[in-house]
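Structure in, sequence out. Go:
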């Protein structure tokens, strides 16, 4: 398996016309390296190590004398150091004649997900006459592209999440009709139990927020911080989950509703502005399939420009979307030209959310979130149908 990994790494390096990929970590500083190389994170590692994979030839390990087994599971020639001078010499020798080398580095820290190597180590490698370039797109190949099994698992999660949204809205409606007092935390617990009954897990509890709380994108109720849900409230549900199997990937969606039978015009007006931004982003992805490289920042611009033209640009306070993989926020390209300018290309086999929002502080906030998988035959919005109007919770 490890030999197959090296073959895949070298194939990717050749395609990118790079001389090699230098993995480096100190006390777990680079989880991306650990993930890609399949390292055991429970193993004691208190000293610096490096692993150089050349585009051609044998990989090279650079290991501390008291931790010479840190990379035992990987193939390659071992170079052991003790004093720091030997570290420098062995690292230079490991890189050899390579002149253009990828590292987990992002110029100007433009993409912080990738910036795992400290500036001093980059300076050291450059002192060897090496051009250090970002591994951002290489990382996507190994940390964002899905297998067929992962896509199947995502589709299962997406389908069930979509059903849970409907079930949760119906449960809120039932409690209102029967006069059962309820709050955000109780509905969060209800959704959590739905995850369990459908064989889903999540790293975090879902977002259930009403009224002004929905204007905080990352608000989530807690036992000692929760608001009641009453008739006449605006209600936002943001839920993400995956199957429990190793390698499973997430689904992530957001819907909004009104706890009543007829949605007030103001809520529907803002929702339609958000919907237009969401659909502008989806349309760009669909229209550009097979037409050359598309970047995350371009899709963010499509949604953001739509919302800005409607007069609400200043209320769209986060990126349009994020990469989705084994973590809900993965290491692939984000749909972002606000928090970062994500210049990574959107790759076939990857998935990302599209979730624009308008947040009116102290009043309410609307977000509409879908997941988009980029297949060979074109983009696919998963877990449909997607939301077209604010849901009248008591009108269903």
């Amino acid at each position: 398996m490890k030999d197959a990994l090296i073959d895949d790494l070298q194939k990717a390096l050749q395609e990118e016309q790079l001389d090699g990929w230098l993995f480096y970590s100190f006390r777990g500083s680079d989880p991306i390296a650990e993930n890609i190389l399949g390292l055991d994170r429970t193993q004691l590692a208190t000293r610096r190590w490096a692993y150089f994979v050349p585009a051609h030839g044998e990989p090279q390990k650079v290991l501390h004398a008291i931790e010479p087994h840190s990379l035992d599971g990987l193939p390659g020639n071992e170079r052991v150091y003790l004093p720091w001078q030997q570290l420098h010499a062995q690292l230079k020798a490991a890189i050899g004649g390579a002149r253009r080398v990828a590292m987990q580095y992002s110029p100007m820290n433009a993409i912080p997900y990738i910036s795992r190597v400290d500036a001093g180590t980059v300076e050291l490698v450059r002192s060897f006459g090496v051009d250090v370039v970002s591994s951002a797109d290489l990382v996507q190949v190994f940390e964002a592209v899905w297998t067929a099994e992962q896509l199947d698992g995502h589709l299962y999660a997406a389908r069930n999440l979509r059903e849970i949204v409907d079930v949760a809205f119906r449960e809120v409606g039932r409690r209102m009709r029967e006069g059962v007092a309820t709050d955000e935390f109780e509905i969060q617990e209800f959704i959590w139990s739905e995850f369990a009954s459908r064989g889903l897990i999540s790293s975090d509890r879902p977002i259930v927020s009403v009224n002004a709380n929905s204007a905080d994108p990352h608000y989530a109720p807690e036992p000692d911080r929760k608001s009641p849900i009453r008739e006449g409230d605006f209600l936002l549900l943001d839920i993400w989950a995956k199957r429990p199997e190793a390698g499973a990937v997430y689904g992530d969606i957001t819907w909004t509703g009104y706890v009543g039978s007829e949605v007030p015009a103001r809520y529907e007006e803002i929702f339609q502005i958000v919907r237009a931004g969401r659909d502008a982003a989806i349309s760009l992805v669909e229209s550009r399939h097979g037409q050359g490289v598309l970047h995350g920042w371009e899709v963010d611009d499509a949604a953001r420009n739509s919302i800005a033209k409607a007069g609400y640009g200043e209320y769209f306070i986060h990126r349009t979307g994020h990469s989705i993989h084994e973590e809900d926020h993965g290491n692939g390209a984000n749909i972002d030209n606000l928090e970062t300018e994500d210049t990574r290309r959107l790759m076939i086999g990857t998935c990302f959310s599209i979730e624009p929002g308008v947040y009116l502080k102290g009043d309410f906030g609307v977000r509409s979130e879908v997941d988009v998988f980029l297949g060979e035959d074109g983009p696919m919005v998963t877990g449909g149908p997607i939301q077209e109007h604010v849901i009248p919770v008591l009108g269903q």
